[in-house]
Amino acid sequence: QVRLVESGGGLVQAGGSLKLSCAASGDTICISAMGWYRQAAGKERELVAATTSGGRTNYADSVKGRFTISRDNAKNTLSLQMNSLKPEDTAVYYCNAIDSCRSGMDYWGKGTLVTVSS
């Protein structure tokens, strides 16, 4: 089992920056890909950015050039640097980890709220 705890959310003005962090604990040796998802009020959860254990990354078109995902495998942490924030980035952001030891298993944190004011 893996436990994920997000931090770093808060209230920021449009154009500002925030950095989210996700700390993983437990069977972290089994973690392969990790990612950030978000869910705005009344909308479905969507992928924001993801990274493999080897460092390959992909981003949602809406955040390309503004957000940067990074991963420290030694410290079992995942980060999301968010710049040039827009009101439409307002959402609860969740950390996700894929378990390579248990087929079909993944884990979610409880989420951290990001609110961008206009």
Key features?
118 residues, mainly beta, seven-stranded mixed beta sheet, four-stranded antiparallel beta sheet, 11 strands, globular
Structural features, described:
The chain contains no helices and eleven strands. The chain is mainly beta and 118 residues long.
What is the β-strand count? Answer: 11
Taking the sheet with the most strands, its summary is:
7 strands, mixed
Helix/strand/pairing class, anyone? mainly beta
Helix and strand string, N-terminal first? EEEEEEEEEEE
Q: In what range is the share of β-strand residues? A: over 45%
Mean pLDDT comes to 96
Shape: globular
Q: So how many helices?
A: 0
Low-confidence stretches: none
Give the helix level as a range of percent.
Answer: under 10%
Secondary structure layout:
Elements: E1 2-7, E2 10-13, E3 18-26, E4 31-39, E5 46-51, E6 57-59, E7 67-72, E8 77-82, E9 91-99, E10 106-108, E11 112-117
Parallel strand pairs: 2-11
Antiparallel strand pairs: 1-3, 3-8, 4-5, 4-9, 5-6, 7-8, 9-10, 9-11
Brief summary:
The chain has 118 residues and is mostly beta strands. It is 0% helix and 57% strand. The strands form 2 sheets. Strands 2, 4, 5, 6, 9, 10 and 11 form a 7-stranded mixed sheet that branches. The chain has a 4-stranded antiparallel sheet with strand order 1-3-8-7, with no helix packed on it.
